[in-house]
Amino acid sequence: YGKNTIKFLRLHREGKKEFVKEVEVCTHLRLNSAQEYLDGNNSLVIPTDTIKNIVLLLAKKKGIPTLEEFAIDICEHFMTSFCQVVYVKTYVQEVPWQRLHENGVPHIHSFICVPDGIRFCEAEQCRNGPLVVFAGIKDLKLMKTTQSGFEGFFRNEHTTLPERNDRILCGELFCKWSYGECRNIDFDCIRNKIRECILEAFAGPPDCGEYSPSYQKTVNSIQMLILSKVPQVQVIETVLNNTFYNVVDMKNLGVTNDKEVLVPVETPYGSCACTLGRK
Amino acid sequence: YGKNTIKFLRLHREGKKEFVKEVEVCTHLRLNSAQEYLDGNNSLVIPTDTIKNIVLLLAKKKGIPTLEEFAIDICEHFMTSFCQVVYVKTYVQEVPWQRLHENGVPHIHSFICVPDGIRFCEAEQCRNGPLVVFAGIKDLKLMKTTQSGFEGFFRNEHTTLPERNDRILCGELFCKWSYGECRNIDFDCIRNKIRECILEAFAGPPDCGEYSPSYQKTVNSIQMLILSKVPQVQVIETVLNNTFYNVVDMKNLGVTNDKEVLVPVETPYGSCACTLGRK
Amino acid sequence: YGKNTIKFLRLHREGKKEFVKEVEVCTHLRLNSAQEYLDGNNSLVIPTDTIKNIVLLLAKKKGIPTLEEFAIDICEHFMTSFCQVVYVKTYVQEVPWQRLHENGVPHIHSFICVPDGIRFCEAEQCRNGPLVVFAGIKDLKLMKTTQSGFEGFFRNEHTTLPERNDRILCGELFCKWSYGECRNIDFDCIRNKIRECILEAFAGPPDCGEYSPSYQKTVNSIQMLILSKVPQVQVIETVLNNTFYNVVDMKNLGVTNDKEVLVPVETPYGSCACTLGRK
Amino acid sequence: YGKNTIKFLRLHREGKKEFVKEVEVCTHLRLNSAQEYLDGNNSLVIPTDTIKNIVLLLAKKKGIPTLEEFAIDICEHFMTSFCQVVYVKTYVQEVPWQRLHENGVPHIHSFICVPDGIRFCEAEQCRNGPLVVFAGIKDLKLMKTTQSGFEGFFRNEHTTLPERNDRILCGELFCKWSYGECRNIDFDCIRNKIRECILEAFAGPPDCGEYSPSYQKTVNSIQMLILSKVPQVQVIETVLNNTFYNVVDMKNLGVTNDKEVLVPVETPYGSCACTLGRK
């Protein structure tokens, strides 16, 4: 099989107001032939240059109303137009341009890049199989400075970690979910709702937070909240890449450091992942 | 001379509300001795481990009210405590954590990383010289989808670039300014004012924008606006690293592309820089 | 499940001669419990800190004779020592330190980093299942300046790529293979043999090379040569990430460029992958 | 002023044997005008596209016999052809392709990328000033597993580092030197000689090494050896970015770790730099 990545900008205008989407599209095809590998016979091979042309042409003709609709368009095009294709997957990722505001007034054609979580989606289809759509958010960096601990874990002769009930919880979140039926879905609206669920479950109520007994439990809380609030979501995969922080021991320097100065621990670097679906 | 980088977190609490600053500090020392290079005599060398201890201890004792005040504290400590130091420069850069909000309510202890321009500063001093303070913003990515052109440039037999009056203006901005006298300055307030000046001069009025005849002129407009609105700023250095976009030619594909689909040009990659001061 | 990465150095000495291995080890565990996710009950959770201790302790006690033997040791330790573990995978990657030579004489304790292909391996086991060992080479960048083309490919109305019979073939190779039975295998020796096969199949005979009709065929040639020369290998996965180069059109500059000056095409970026096993 | 980066491949053939250089060229111009900044008058501005055309055309016409000769050609072209240019600097960096060998036989057209130190050079000229040429090696990673210490350093109440006489010396070296008179210099030959000096001074004799009392002394030894062996070199700047390694304390795990297992210390990260010239 082959893969192909292309990055481009799609502009459009409504009256004097400009809109922009910058995306990176990766299209992955598998063919029903092996002769290109075995004999160097390229007669069924679709050049990456052709894939690029098609992706750009679809963007021109149909625009990018949402990442998901664009990914679905691409998948359907390849399945319909090339009978040698037995599998297609399209990954679309968005450069996070946001409209500039001056004193609360939106600017008609100026944008700023604000990478506080990258939006992406995936559409995937095997010939004669259903088209499956995933959407997600990645590179979302969150931190809680208190209300997090890790106690009562498994101990043996190799355990040196002390129990802690007031540590920093800090990590980079990856969250990817699948949709069941894709007709009449407002993808952007659902994505925003899910983002709110993530932040709410991570942080807890704004006035007091909520104690996290482990990264695992926090991951689970995020998933449970999404499943309960967003009925269109079928399955969620969540990965939390943790950064650990150590309180610096300042006894030698004659000072008591009461969780005021902490340094990141580069190693070990941990990650906790879980996939949760509906019954 | 020697250099040393350390990254850490500084927390503090007011009532139940938590505050966090994560910074990367790079301290650069030059000594009045050469014997460590020539003879391997280390008796005047200050180990990087000691530098680290001092930076962390100052953070613990004095906190980080602003990046600039912290950098000044570090500079002054090294100049005062080590008579072998003839030059010290401290660079401080902030990880852009922002307080989370839920439905407009600020959270007491949860934060999200929003890297839409990185704040940094520098304090520098030679022995017997004045302490000079710089501040800046870097990695600020901005785009205008219209109201930008490049015409009337120098032409010779090696010129192939067509003139354009409706191109994309897109780039990554670096802006660094120096202060004259540093007493009684509200560094954070000035920094915010300067950020607003940058966005305003880049984008122009929100309802119509302002035509940019070149990257150079846009850089100059940014600098002129800052100098006119912020009297504490003495000198400004601005660098704009440009990303160029080409309108994709779709004639071969039977379609007219009216600046709707564009691809980034990886090479040539250009940059335009200028330093401007008061008379 | 959870993951954990640690990087460290393992030294040993034979007489006055020093040996060094620097590795990055990523251990991935899955437990037979869900209570840590559902209830915040950590009683079966193995902290990443414990995983780190065990990896370092095994390195200390057993050394790292080969990456593969070390990965097997780690897998077996976790399966044997923790009955709550139902799956373990260990990935080991080597920092490519090579002994320095001065005028052909090997230095007893000095090394240089030469990243011309990174060695890695993986050992994987489900409880009650067999231990499977993979090894591989990645980030191996190769180029042929001639004897490569791409012709006779599938054409439709979206095809604009011209046929070429003298292009540059340039890419980054990833190659990963599995072993059947792992007893009494000289892993390092096989790895070197496979590296030679890759280079030979990619480049062809040194005096004339061998024409490559496509990236796909080159990938297949590499795999076929390995399977024919190295009986211990069961299955090979190969990925070739291609960099394309365009001959610069210099007609406007009054010059004919006969494939002398080429620029890399950043987009589209392609990749071709294939997995091949024995019957 | 403005800057511009371009990356390209230059091929040539002698008989059936192919040669390749892949370089990244960054050209930096300063003009004698300010009107493009102040008034948006572009009439003297040289577009980056034109700069790119000139660099590629010079590569086509003159080839790249050495990085230094190519950088000199570019500088001279801009000074001669554009009277509005008052300063030009050209930086050239090489992608480290090496000819493949099979059983010791060099391949006629296949290459492998071996980044064990990146070669670069710089040529710089002010109008009416001399052309100055620098050359250098960067990203050269070296390690000594013994024969290195750090003792007798400055101590005060903030010193916690223990004295060590058997530590790891590991770092990334940057070395840049200037030539006096540039006529009739064999740049590649000198560069190779200097590389040998660096390795020799870093490592010491192959059978026993040489004790390094500090990073500073090692930097100085490298510079002294180059100045003594290579008369064409006028001034050398050397920077050693250090990676520190800590011996892991395994007492809690019931084991004595005799400098066998070490972990890298990510922070503090240190660097030591020195510039040395002839009297």
TrEMBL record, chains A, B, C, D:
Entry's localization field: Peroxisome
Catalyzed reactions: urate + O2 + H2O = 5-hydroxyisourate + H2O2
Enzyme type, top EC level: oxidoreductase
Sites where the protein binds O2: 48, 242
PANTHER family the record matches: URICASE
Purpose: Catalyzes the oxidation of uric acid to 5-hydroxyisourate, which is further processed to form (S)-allantoin.
Identification of the protein by name: Uricase
Organism (species): Calypte anna
